[in-house]
Amino acid sequence: MRLLAILAGLAAAAAKPTARTKRKPGLLIVGLGGNNGATVLAGLHANNMKLTWEGAKKKCTADYTGCITQTRAMRRKGLAPFKRAAVGGWDIRPTPIGQALREARILDFDLVRQLSDTLDSVEVMPGVYDARFVGESQRATATHIKNLPDARSKVNALREDIRAFKAHNSVDGHCTVIYSGSVEAPSLLPSYETSEELLEALSSEQGDDFAPSLLYAIAACLEGCSFVNAASQDTVCPGLCELAEKNGAYCLGTDFKAGQTKFKTQVVEYLENLAFNVKVVASSNHLGNNDMRNLALGSATQEKTRKAKLRVKSQIFSSDIDHHVSVQYTPFIGDEKRDYVEYTSEAFLSQLHTMATYTRCSDSVLCAPLYIDVCCLLDYFSRKKVSPSTVAAATAYLFKVPEGRAGPLVGFSEQLRALERALDGHDDVQAVIPQKNDEKRVVCCGLACLDMELSGAQDLGREAINAFGEASSRAGGAAPQTASCLADHGVPTIVVAALGDDQQGDELRALLTERGISVDETLSDGRTGLAVVPVFANGRGCYFAAGANDAFDARTLLDGVARVESVAAVLIGYPHLLPSLRGQALGDAIEQIDSIVGVDLNGVQPTHYLGDGVVDAALYKADVVHANADEAATLLRWPKGYHCTQLARALCDATGAACVVVTDGSNGAAAAVASDPNRLSSSSLKWPANDLKAVASLPGPPGVAPNANGAGDAFFAAFVAST
C-alpha cells in the first residue's frame, strides 16, 4: 500500500553518504616485489577484476583456491573477504610489480599479460637496507632505500609509511605487516625480554645493529599493526611480543610452512599414529629463487643465513627424530620447487619401514595463500579481542617453528584443532566478550535488522507519490532493541544474532557499538535483515526482509550464550519470524540455559495460534513471555477488544510459562504468573512472584504515539531486568 514511499525512502538514503562501509583489512609486505608479494597482489587483482585466462591444461578463472579463510565455512564465522583488503608494502629494488612478476615466470603468461599494467601502477615504498643482512646477489639492485642516519629515524619513517597507507586506502580493519624479504643473517644482539628494553636499545648504539626485519617489526607494533615473520631469521623475541600486545596487536612467526613441510608433518603424524617409531626424515629440495641463489654463494654472510634457514627446518619435529634437510640452487627450475623426502621408521619387531614422497609446485603458489589467511585471521581475532596466546596457537599451523606466545603444539592436526577452537570462540586466557569485574550481562538473542525509518511519511494510497521528511537508521529487531534499552540504563548487555557481511550489517554493528553494546555475531551468506518503517501521523508501517535471520538457529544461540561469562538473563526475540528457531529446537535450547529466559512473541501473524507447533514446545519452559494485546488475542484465537489483564491471565494458563506480560499501548500492561506453585518454584525469577498471582496491571501512557517502534521491546527488557 505504501510501496512508493518505501522506494522513495531507499532512494533518499542511497543519495546520502553512508556512515559505515564494509570492514577493510590492511596487508603490508616487506619485499613486495619478491615472488611471494607479487603473487599475492596478482591473486587479489585477478579476483577483483574477475579475470579468465588460458592455462596449461584448461581455461582458468580467478578464485582463492588454497586459502582456507576464503571458504564459505570460514566466511560464515565472520572472517572478512580478502577481496576487500588493501595491499601494499616496501622493497629495496625499484622494479615495478608487473615487471617483477613477468621476470619470475611463476604464473601463466596469459594471466600475467592481463595484470601487468595494473600491477606496474602499484606504489612500492622504499625499504630499509643494511648490507650486513642482505645477500650479495641483491646489493647491486638495492637502490630503492631510505637513506636515514640511525635506527630510530628509520622506524619513524616506516611508521609514517604505515599511517599514510592506512589513510590513503581507508583501512578500518586490522593491519598486518609481513616480513617477506630474503632470509637475514642471525642477529648477534641479545633477546630482549621486555618492550622497554627493546625500545631503549633501539635508541642506543645497539640500535645500529638492529636487523631491518626488527625495525619493520617495531614500527608495525607501535602503529597497532600485527607483525608476522615469514622468513627464517630470529626476529621474534619476548620484548617484541609485549610491544605488539601493548598496542592491541599480535607478533607471530617463524618461517611460513608451505605445502611440502605441512605434508611432511602430516606424514610423520600418520606414522606415529600407527605406533611406528619414526627414526629418520631425510629431505632434499631444489629450486632457483632468490633465497636459494643467496645461499649458494657460499660467503661468510650467506653461511650464517644458511644456518638461520636450516635452524627452523631442523626444529620441525621432536628431538628424537633424525631430521636432515638439503637445499640446492638450480637456476633453470626457477620458483617451481622440487622436494623429495624419505621416511624411515621401526615397525613390528623392530623391522624397518621406509616410504618416500615427491612434491613439485611453485613455492609462491603455496606461500601466497598463507599471506592471505594470516591477514584475514588477524583481522578477525583483533576484532574479537582474542588473547595473544590463543591467536599464536591458532596460527601455529602456518609456521615451521611457531614462536612468540605459541605453546608446544606439535602435529598439524593438533594445530588445526587449535585454529578451530579459536574460531569457535574458545579463548584459554580471557573471554571473547570483554567484561568488567564480575558484572552479569543480559544476552539479547534473535531477530536483528537495520531499521530505516521514514519520518513524516504521507499515506495517500498505493498509486500516489508519497513524500516523507527524513530517513534515519536504527538498530532494529528484538535483539538490538532490547539491548539498546538495557544499555541506555546502564545494564551490561550483548547481542547474539545473525548478520550478513554487507553495508547494512556494518552500520548495524556501528550503531550497537556506539551505545556500548558488544556484538557476538554469526556471519551468514545472506544479507543483513532490513526493515523499512514509514512513520505516519497516526501510526507506522513496516516492510521487512529477513535476510540472514533465516539462518539463526538453536546452535547459534547456545554457542553465543556460552561465550559470555556471568549471564543474568537471556532474552529471545521473535521466534515466529525465525524459521530455524522454532518448536522443539527452541524448547531444547531454553532447557540448556542456566539463567532467566524471556521470550518475546512479536511477529505473530493472523495465521498463528497456540497449537501450531511454532512456540508450544518452548513457552512452558520460559520464565517470562511477552506479547502485545493483538498477538496474545491471535494466539488464543480470541477476538480483539479484551483487556490486557484478561489476555495475560489466559495466555499464562495456556502456555504454562512462569510469567506472561501483555502490553497494549495507551491501555496499559499486565503481568500474570503461573497458578501452579511448583511452576513458580522451578523458575529462575527472583521477585516475589506470588504477589502477582491475581494479575498486576499498569496504566498506559496518555495519547497515541505515532511511532511506537521498539516500545514493546523496551518494556519487556526493563521488566525482565527488574527481576
Overall helicity: 25-40%
Distance between the termini: 42 Å
> What average pLDDT do the residues reach?
84
- Beta-strand content: 15-25%
Coarse shape: elongated
Question: What is the radius of gyration computed over CA atoms, rounded to a whole number of angstroms?
Answer: 31 Å
Low-confidence stretches: 1-21, 429-437, 689-694
Secondary structure tally, helices: 25
Counted beta strands? 27
| Largest beta-sheet details | 9 strands, mixed
> Which structural class is indicated by helix and strand composition?
alpha/beta
> Strand order within the widest sheet?
18-17-14-22-23-24-25-26-27
Properties at a glance:
single chain, 723 residues, alpha/beta, nine-stranded mixed beta sheet, seven-stranded mixed beta sheet, 25 helices, 27 strands, 36% helix, 21% strand, elongated
Descriptive report:
Strand 17 (493-500), helix 18 and strand 18 (518-524) form a beta-alpha-beta unit. Helix 2 packs across helix 4 (97-104). The chain is α/β, with parallel strands linked by helices and 723 residues long. The protein is built from 25 helices and 27 strands. Helix content is 36%, strand content 21%.
List the helices and strands and how they pair.
Layout: H1 3-15, E1 26-30, H2 35-48, E2 52-54, E3 59-61, H3 72-76, E4 86-91, H4 97-104, H5 109-120, E5 125-126, H6 136-139, H7 151-168, E6 175-179, H8 195-202, H9 212-222, E7 226-229, H10 238-246, E8 251-253, H11 259-273, E9 277-287, H12 290-296, H13 300-314, E10 322-329, E11 336-346, E12 352-362, H14 363-384, H15 388-394, E13 403-404, H16 412-423, E14 441-446, E15 449-454, E16 471-476, H17 478-488, E17 493-500, H18 503-514, E18 518-524, E19 529-536, E20 539-540, E21 543-545, H19 554-562, E22 567-573, H20 583-591, E23 596-600, H21 616-619, E24 624-628, H22 629-636, H23 644-655, E25 659-663, E26 669-673, H24 677-681, E27 696-698, H25 711-721
